[in-house]
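Narrative summary of target 7.
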Amino acid sequence: MATHSSRSENKDAGEEDELRRRNPYEVLGIPSNSTDQEIKSAYRRMALRYHPDKNPDDPVAAEMFKEVTFAYEVLSDPENRRLYDTTGSEAVGPENEDLELDLSSLGAVNTIFAALFNKLGVQIKTTVSANLLGEALNGTVTTLPLMVGQVVSRKVEKQSAHFYSVTLTEEEAQDGLICKVHSSAKNKFKLLYFDQVENGGLSLALQEDSRKTGKLSTAGLYFFGFPVYRFDHRVNSRALSRDPETGFFKRLDAFQPFEITELKAGSHVFAVYGDNFFKSVSYTLEIFSSAPFGNEKESLRSTEAQIVSKRTELLKFEAEYHEVFAQFTEMASKCTGEVQEVRDSLQYHPVFSCFLDYIINK
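Modeled conformation, tokenized:
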């Protein structure tokens, strides 16, 4: 009897642990009020820890990697996160478009298929190589020192990165910093910023994917001492695909600030990651002071404040719209029923039937 009780308790404990792991915040080890950047940082840290490449033939790590991926896919999507926060629903699940691939871990055949899908217009989201992040965290990568204002042009291999360090004085830190990279429009790359950890290693803190702008692919990180926002068009596309009629209410959901707004005096590490499927990436990187762009920064701050205000207005308007629309739908349905009831009542009265049809159809 005691044995049976012990097994039951172990089973209950296992079920409780499974339920705990399904809570995406607990899986990532973060509070429920975490910012988008804190969610990303926690995911990268946990994914690196349990990545299959680092834990071969370890079923526990493999299961945890799935849980971590699931948690991130729930919390990285504004709509999914809002649904989970309001209902706690376990029905919230990952979507194919949110899957991030580590191209360095794919075989040649799978990489070819991914490249073909991308060529056909299917957006393939990629992540930085787990092996590269591990080397950075262990402090085994080589960094090239740069001066503020220096321009560098190089070629980085696919799924590899070039690391750069820049040391700021107090004055340079207060002036603000811009790091920009450009390449040809055919190339994909990621611009990365790393925090320095106690053991001398580097932990990925910010990531900006390149975007096509005319004949170039560009990416930039901006540290002005105030929030600088970026816009992920894919989030809005998902909202529109779910509900085209009200998708515009979610249009500004993807307008989110960089978590880091300023840099302190001292050494800082950036990296350019080659994100092409098969070929290397030729790029030009420049790190320069934002001091000469005072007017542009104030204009940016003012414009972004207006957009944030409009986002708040849209949230309020959405609630009002759905309330009024529900009332309209109810009244329209009631009106249709009343009209049909009058029709049914008078359909056998020759005079009123003709008169009613004339009034309704007029």
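The radius of gyration is 27 Å.
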